[in-house]
Structures are given as C-alpha cells and as structure tokens.
Amino acid sequence: MKPAHAVSLIETAYRLDLTTEQWLEGIAAAAAVALGSTQGAMAFQYDASGGDWVHVAGTGLSGLSPDFARDYFNHPDMPPEAAAAMAQILKSSRVGSLRSVFEGLAFRPVCDVLDTYGIDDMLAVNGLDPSGRGCMLLIADKKREHSPRTAQFWYRLAAHVSAGNRLHGTLKSLAQLGTDPTRGAEAILTPTGRVEHASGPAEPRPAREALRDALVRIEAARAEGDDVHRAVELWRGLVAGRWSLVEHFERDGKRYYLAHKNDPELAEDRVLTPRERLVLGYAELGQSNKLVAYALGLSSSTVSTLLGRARKKLGVQP
Question: How far from the centroid of its chain's Cα atoms is residue 229's Cα?
Fold first, then answer.
C-alpha cells in the first residue's frame, strides 16, 4: 500500500463538506483502495450504546451491488444469542475476518450473502469510541490471516474513522447550512503552524504548542514518500485528547486548519476525572496503551499514568 492511499482515507474521514451518505460512500471507497480491494467495501454508522440493541443509522457502498446492504442486514431469523454476540462485537475494537466472526457464531446466512455476491471474505474494521457509537468498515478481501502489524495499522486508521464519524455528526449541519465552520473552532492555524486564533482550552501555551506539533506531523504524513506505517503513525487520532485538526479553505483560496473539540462525550463520573474516564473507556474496548495513546494523541506514559490512577480509584487490578 502507498502512503497516499492510507492518508487519503484519513483525509476523507475529516471531510465536512459531504452529506452523511456521501461521507460513508467516500469512506468505503477510500478503505477499498487502501486495502487494495477490487470488489469494494461498505461503511455503516451504528449505535450500540443500548445493551444488546444495535441501531444502524446509515450505510454507504463503493463497488458493491446496491442490494448488498439490504441482504447483509435483513436477517429477521437471527437467533437472539447471535444478535447479542454481534452487539458485543460492535462494542469492542476489532480488525479481522468477517466470515470467521459469523462462522464462530454458527450463523450461516451472512456467510451465504458473501457467497451470493462472490466475496471470499471481508476485513472488518471497527471505528468505535467508548460512547458505544461508531462506524464499521467491511472491505471485500480474500480469506487470509493478517499479520499483527497489519492489524495494528488498521486499528490506527479506525481511530480516524471514529474521530471523523463524531466530528461529521457534530458539524455537518454547519456545512449543510453554509454556516462559517470557524465559528465552532477553538483554534485556527495556518499551514505553517502559526496560531491565528485560540480560545478556551486552546489558549494556554502548551495547548498551542501541541496543536502546532500535530499540524507539523500531519503535513509530514502527507509528504511521506515510501513508509506507509510511518505516515499513519505521524497523524494521530486526536490532539492532546481533545481536538481534531480539519483543513479549511476560505473563499479566497487561503488554507487554514481548524481545531475542533472532538473527544467522545461520556457520562460524568463522580470518582474519575474526565480524562481518566476517557482513557479507561478506551482500555475497556480492548485497546493497548499504545493504541489508546494514538487515538487520543497522548503519550503512552500519560495513558499508563491515567489508567493506573483510574483503576486505583475504582479498586480494579490491572
């Protein structure tokens, strides 16, 4: 895979000028290219925050028959235990074989759908955050075992899909109404990293420096010539556990980056600080400290410290 293909998927995740359907179709198309799939992909938004109930909010297809989504989701005869198991899968970080999931659940109809459309397998990539809401990518693939390094790579891409899904849901109304998106930004930066405006949590010097550093890394990721893993590693999921940096063009063509608050909205906790609750939430999805650090744009040592404090307060052993 070329760095440009992976970066294109990340860039698509943060596009705010698309309708929900266009955004999902764009994510699916970029994911198919990134994996090198010739058959296509499907992306769907979902809400798995309510027990064993899952609500699919929207779907987007690229390269697949329009009927694929209908056939994939239309299973009224799915046993309750299989539905509950699927809900639990959507509540955990996952990268792997879709066919293996349903074979493991002993539920053949979904495998039959893949057979009907001539799809050997699909790579399932779950862009989830601790709120229980996310965007799942299903990319047509041959049945194979992906290396741990490849899985880690897709976990990182999933962090951007998740962040883009949150951001799109929050800000799409601004784009649709033609409202100036800078109104909701906590900071505005030039492509060189100069902070032209900052408010609230973005005002202190450490925050400005974190935003500048993140922007330098983003531009470096876009310029990376050969190493796709390095390109993705450079572009973290969030900045300082709070912001997403989004490219913005003024009417006169001037390019800026907007720093939008985009951390997952979680229920308040009387025991834990918001950041401790956030880090613990990601850990409960099954993510390693390293992946949590990537998703939040924090150092691994900071994640380890916050997670240790949270578990100590709750009396939970590591």
Answer: 17
Report the length, in residues, of the chain: 318
At position 72, the amino acid (one-letter code) is Y
Q: Is 236 helix (H, G, I), strand (E, B) or coil?
A: coil
| C-alpha span between 70 and 56 (Å, rounded) | 12
Give me the domains of the chain, ranges plus CATH numbers: 3-155 (3.30.450.80), 179-313 (no CATH)
Convert the pLDDT of each residue in 228-260 to its tens digit: 999 999 999 999 999 999 998 887 888 999 999
pLDDT digits (tens, 9 = 90+) for 79-109: 777 777 777 777 777 899 999 888 887 778 8
Structural element, H or E, at residue 134? strand 133-141
- The residues near 16 (Cβ < 8 Å, ≥ 6 apart) are 167, 168, 171, 172, 174, 175, 181, 246
DSSP string, 46-81: EEEEETTEEEEEEEEEESS-THHHHHHH--TT--HH
